From TrEMBL:
InterPro entries: AAA+_ATPase (IPR003593), G_ENGA (IPR031166), GTP-bd (IPR006073), GTPase_Der (IPR016484), KH_dom-like (IPR032859), KH_dom-like_a/b (IPR015946), P-loop_NTPase (IPR027417), Small_GTP-bd (IPR005225). The keyword Nucleus does not apply. This is GTPase Der. It comes from Cellulomonas biazotea. The keyword Transit peptide does not apply. One of its GO terms (biological process) is ribosome biogenesis. The lineage of its organism: Bacteria, Bacillati, Actinomycetota, Actinomycetes, Micrococcales. SUPFAM superfamilies: P-loop containing nucleoside triphosphate hydrolases. Belongs to the TRAFAC class TrmE-Era-EngA-EngB-Septin-like GTPase superfamily. EngA (Der) GTPase family. GTPase that plays an essential role in the late steps of ribosome biogenesis. GTP 1 binds at residues 30-37, 77-81, 139-142.
Length: 454
């Protein structure tokens, strides 16, 4: 890429964070108390603390950038939720299922001092069915005396058990070597097949109408298509022809299966949403038009934006919309959705099918923006005019100068601006606003990073 030649030495992470690159995903799965958190902390070392200090990292965050022997990957910690003892099996199975959807490889942790339990056996069945690479961690082998316990786990049929003491670090090197060996170079799901069908995720809090919409869309337009040449897809995804154009709806199995829904924000629902978003290029976030917007709704929207995916917001259940609610709805859009004013909104009814035909054009608009590349020449002409019309405010008598800018990547568009000093946040927002006014980018997040040249 010609533009990139201009910015040699620029670390990929500076262009948009770890999500910018499709690092392969390793998920840690296992029953409570087997030592998952201990292991995760050991793998991350001090990096975890760094991550938690980063602004914008929500408390729901469960994936962390990790590195072992020079191989970078995303570590997903699926164990961060309290389980009530009664529901343990269901919860662990749910966790494994999500990890399978999310991961390129699974690190399955068993307590070697306890041995394989029925719950472990159940997870093994799920893992085996999914066919993803599994590395078996026989944990709590604190010394040579425990090696026999580890060897007993061959019986699980998952291959070699790695005897490990997450607590003391014993054996973790061999374990991680096997784990990174099991990972592909780049994540299979985060990376869409080039020129393959566009990948869309239907997301939103429980009961907003995801499965109703899926059924409506599939029911009216479904055409059975054989795996198109050159496309790889998960069995949980569905390939659908919409007006003759193929689309992949990702993670539909998660939508169809009505998992027991607990009230309140659900850790696993949130993980599954993240998995679907990461597999997709564009996400439709469904919200319930007939009820007030909730924090859960805006959280899902943020997940899409943070992942750098194109976005469409669908106001569903429009048939239940009471005219009295109109002013409140407008106010919510102005207030709670102000950060995503650029996202196309469609009002639909998944139940009646009303206006569901407007989804595809909205998806296409968002994806077009997501793919947009502005040439370096045009971008710098734009910046020149912008600076001439509205220079950066003086700061202590000095003024950072903008040297030049380039678009470092598409999907989503990421810009790097080279300057002689840091830009005020207000000025960065101004640049973003003018970029959108000038070039559109409807439906796509864009990012701007600033690089100070000495
Ligand atoms: P999680 O629920 O699977 O995340 O398990 P934790 O990481 O919280 O560990 C549960 C308990 O097992 C804690 O008391 C840990 O200190 C202990 N533990 C974890 N790993 C080891 C280990 O390798 N050896 C020993 N002896 N204890 C461990
Ligand atoms: P999911 O949990 O997001 O998959 O939501 P569902 O598709 O299961 O829908 C939850 C409930 O809302 C069901 O009772 C649906 O029939 C109902 N529902 C979904 N879409 C609409 C709609 O557009 N209008 C009305 N009135 N009800 C809807």
């Amino acid at each position: 890429d010609d533009d990139l030649a201009l910015i040699d030495g620029l670390d990929e992470d500076e262009l948009g964070g770890p999500e910018a690159t499709a690092w392969p995903v390793l998920a840690v799965v296992g029953r409570p108390n087997v030592g998952k958190s201990t292991l995760v902390n050991r793998i991350l070392g001090r990096r975890e603390a760094v991550v938690e200090d980063m602004p914008g990292v929500t408390r729901d965050r469960v994936s962390y950038p990790a590195e072992w022997a020079g191989r970078r990957f995303t570590l997903v910690d699926t164990g961060g939720w309290e389980v009530d003892v009664a529901g343990i099996e269901a919860r662990v199975a749910q966790q494994a299922e999500v990890a399978i959807a999310l991961a390129d490889a699974v690190l399955f942790v068993v307590d070697a001092t306890v041995g394989a339990t029925d719950t472990d056996e159940q997870v093994v069945r799920l893992l085996r069915r999914a066919g993803k690479p599994v590395v078996l961690c026989a944990n709590k082998v604190d010394g040579p005396a425990g090696e026999a316990d580890a060897a007993a786990l061959w019986a699980l049929g998952l291959g070699e058990p790695f005897p490990v003491s997450a607590l003391h670090g014993r054996g973790t090197g061999d374990l991680l070597e096997a784990a990174v060996d099991a990972l592909p170079e780049v994540s299979a799901h985060a990376k869409p097949v080039p020129d393959g069908p566009r990948r869309v995720a239907l997301v939103g809090r429980p009961n907003v109408g995801k499965s109703s919409l899926l059924n409506k869309v599939l029911g009216t337009e479904r055409v059975v298509v054989d795996a198109t040449a050159g496309t790889t897809r998960d069995p949980v995804d569905e390939l659908v022809l919409l007006k003759g154009v193929p689309w992949v709806f990702v993670d539909t199995a998660g939508i169809r299966r009505r998992v027991h829904q607990t009230s309140g924000p659900d850790f696993y629902a949130s993980l599954r949403t993240q998995a679907a978003i990461e597999k997709a290029e564009v996400a439709v976030v469904l919200v319930d038009a007939s009820a007030p917007l909730t924090e859960q709704d805006t959280r899902v929207i943020s997940q899409v934006v943070d992942a750098g995916r194109a976005l469409v917001i669908a106001y569903n259940k429009w048939d239940l919309m009471d005219e009295d609610r109109r002013p409140y709805l407008e106010r919510e859009i102005d207030k709670d959705l102000v950060q995503v004013q650029w996202a196309p909104r469609v009002n639909i009814s998944a139940r009646t099918g009303w206006h569901t035909d407007r989804l595809v054009p909205a998806l296409e608009r968002s994806l077009e923006s997501w793919d947009t590349r502005i040439s370096t020449g045009r971008l710098n002409a734009f910046l020149g005019e912008l600076v001439a019309a509205h220079p950066h405010p003086l700061r202590g008598g000095k003024q950072p100068r903008i040297l030049f800018a380039t678009q470092a990547s598409t999907r989503p568009p990421r810009f790097v601006i080279f300057t002689t000093g840091f830009l005020d946040p207000g000025y960065r927002r101004y640049i973003e606003r003018r970029l959108r006014e000038t070039f559109g980018f409807e439906g796509s997040p864009i990012s701007i990073s600033v690089r100070v040249r000495e």
